[in-house]
Design brief:
Blueprint (H helix, E strand, L loop, with lengths): L3 H23 L2 H11 L2 H5 L7 H35 L7 H12 L5 H10 L7 E4 L3 E8 L2 E8 L3 H14 L1
Antiparallel strand pairs: 1-2, 2-3
Length: 172
């Protein structure tokens, strides 16, 4: 048989654990919203036999959330993977200026940025994708599908385009 002291110690340990759990549950805003909805419901107000304690309402709400997540998580994961797979098929392709730079680097792998800039300026206009070069940008013709349009690239980015082309050719 348990003494009164042992019963009090067990009771104290139980309520410390229960209060910690309640404090943790009250920090979750979704559980608090469910608790408020339950406490303000007409059923809770007018049917005394159906009343539950705040702890019981929070526990039931937590269990409901776990069930909902268990049901919806695989669906969410499947949708995310489906979207990721559809985007993976459409990887970014180099634009026509970058393709031209790759061709130039294939012929001269040790080309520098100033040499590349001079080569782009000296290209014959009718066969080149480059339309015009001014002090700040390069205008070039590009395609997306069957649509052709005019695009622009800053001259300051030429060094980055050159390093990407060299990196691409070294990786092959």
């Amino acid at each position: 048989m348990l003494s009164l002291h042992e019963i009090n110690e067990r009771n104290k340990a139980f309520w410390e654990q229960q209060n910690a759990l309640t404090r943790k549950r009250v920090e979750d805003p979704l559980l608090v919203r469910i608790l408020n909805r339950e406490l303000h419901s007409l059923f809770y107000r007018f049917v005394p036999e159906a009343r539950k304690s705040v702890d019981q309402i929070l526990e039931d709400a937590e269990e409901t959330i776990k069930l909902a997540l268990a049901h919806h998580e695989p669906l969410i994961r499947r949708d995310a993977l489906s979207k990721q797979a559809s985007r993976a098929g459409r990887s970014k392709k180099p634009d026509s200026l970058q393709q031209l730079i790759i061709e130039i680097v294939k012929n001269n792998p040790n080309i520098t940025t100033p040499q590349l800039f001079e080569k782009l300026k000296a290209r014959p206009w009718p066969e080149s994708v480059v339309e015009e070069i001014d002090d700040k940008r390069i205008d070039f013709r590009d395609r997306r599908g069957s649509r052709e349009f005019l695009n622009a690239a800053p001259i300051s980015g030429l060094k980055d385009r050159l390093s990407r082309a060299k990196k691409l050719l070294h990786s092959r």
